[in-house]
Write a structure and sequence with these properties.
Elements lengths: L15 H9 L11 H8 L4 E5 L2 E4 H17 L7 E4 L5 H12 L3 E4 L6 H11 L3 E4 L2 E2 L2 E2 H11 L6 E4 L8 E2 H5 L15 E7 L7 E6 H14 L7 E4 L6 H14 L2 E4 L5 H11 L3 E4 L1 H14 L7 E4 L6 H9 L4 E3 L10 E2 L6 H6 L3 E2 L4 E5 L10 E6 L6 E2 L2 H7 L6 E9 L5 E6 L3 E4 L2 E4 H8 L5 E11 L3 E10 L7 H10 L10 E4 L13 H14 L5
Parallel strand pairs: 1-13, 3-4, 3-5, 5-8, 8-9, 12-13, 12-14, 14-15, 15-16, 27-28
Antiparallel strand pairs: 1-2, 6-7, 10-11, 11-21, 17-18, 19-20, 20-22, 22-23, 24-25, 26-27
Length: 545
Amino acid sequence: MTARTLPPVNAPPVPAAVRHDYRRRGFVTDQTVTTLASRAARRWPERPAVIEGGRVITHRELLRLVEQIGGWLSAQGVGAGHAVCWQSPNWWEAHVVSLAIWHVGAVSVPLAPIYREHELRHVIALTQPAAVVTTPTYRGFDHADAFDTILSESGGAEVARLMLRGTRPGWTSFAELAAGDARCTAAQVQADDPCLVLFTSGTTAAAKGAVHSSTSLLAETRQLVDAWRIGCDDVSYMPAPLQHITGLLNAITIPALSGACSVLAERWAPDRAVMDMQRHQVTWTAGATVFLEELSAAAEAARTRLALQTFVCGGAPVARPVMERAEAQGIPAVRVYGMTELPTVTVMDGSAPFDLRADTDGALAPGVEARIVPDADDGPTTEGEIVVRGPERMLGYLVDAENVAALDAEGWFATGDLGRLDAAGHVTVTGRTKDVINRGGEKFSAREIEDLLLRHPDVREAAVVAAPDERFGEVPVAFVVLAGGRTGGAPALAHHLQQQGLARQKTPVDWHVRGDLPRTPSGKVKKFVLVDEIARRRKQGGRDG
């Protein structure tokens, strides 16, 4: 495998007249992500930029580290248009790496910490990285070994490798680079050049690579800085992975643009979160519904009131009782709606009326347009698929065919979500058309799991559906039809998925063995029947395993 620059994205752009209007109204500029670290160091040199594991790094020190890691990347031949894949916990070193990749003009490819060999192979094949960055064994998985194996299989022996918090033959130590003096200045790139590829699952088996530019990513960042009135005195708390759009925005780009500080959490622990938020006087955070529920309970148990001005919930439904409990604890939660492809369709802050925050998913963000497209078979209705466009819309997907299905000639993106739009511009999401499971804000394709199950010799048919879960919102449940005479159970099938390298979080929590699957006359599996079956079994107190 030879590293290459990412190929051009072949997707319909937003029309020129609309883009001109974005610029006229100040939604987009010529600023690039390559300047983020140096600009912040120049404006707020002594203010804290990132805190993690007892380490406090100022914006000035952050720039020094970014220039040192950037110097190494440049020495390895990594530059404009080259992809750099990185996967790690929420460590301060990962924060540095993310900015260093942009500093040299390369394309950042953050990989979710839950990704294993199956997902990593797909990403590496699509992006053909010039460098990879990861950590040694973490939570029982040897990340570096997985990268070495996959790169060897794909002919990537020349790919540069950087190790965080550890050493390994063939890998360069981050700690050694940070102690050196090799540095580089920011690269010169264009604002519309690709700078980020985020992988997100859709209705197809494999994750899709959504490509963003400085134009779209910084338009998104400015929207949130303005909407939440974030300044250099503000502090975010981020337990969501830095590789997710939530973590990337709230821990990296928003602080860099506003001079704010981000406190990183390696893992979510509500009691620890309460203590950290009190210690660092955290003013805003964002995360899945489960984070809000558990933070409210922890704050109540600690009999404390936090300094939070906004808790942003996105990526999963939020029940009104959850919002009410948070409000009672002095935690002003807001629902927002967006996706990797266009991250901020709506915005709200903690000062909005409670009913608006609890009953809608927010008002359309400045510059964002939305249309509701009803299903032709449903007749007159105010509900339909949400179709959007705006200044932060992605350039497109890496795979051309995926662009054809999602983007039209006028630059509108079909979200696959169902919802309503009121006269005041407030969006309420009511469901999904996509066959996607949303586990605590992490979305992945049901078909991806089904395809891997069908590789097992005992499995003749498989269907995976989303089942309600009190903690995560949704979890995967599998229905399988076994080959004649086979009696294999859940442990064997779960082990098979593990052997295939599937992320643990995607493994079904319940297994149901059936003689056949319910189908439409055209042969499609009636998944709603399976979902009803789960509800009926739970009501009766039974489950297969």
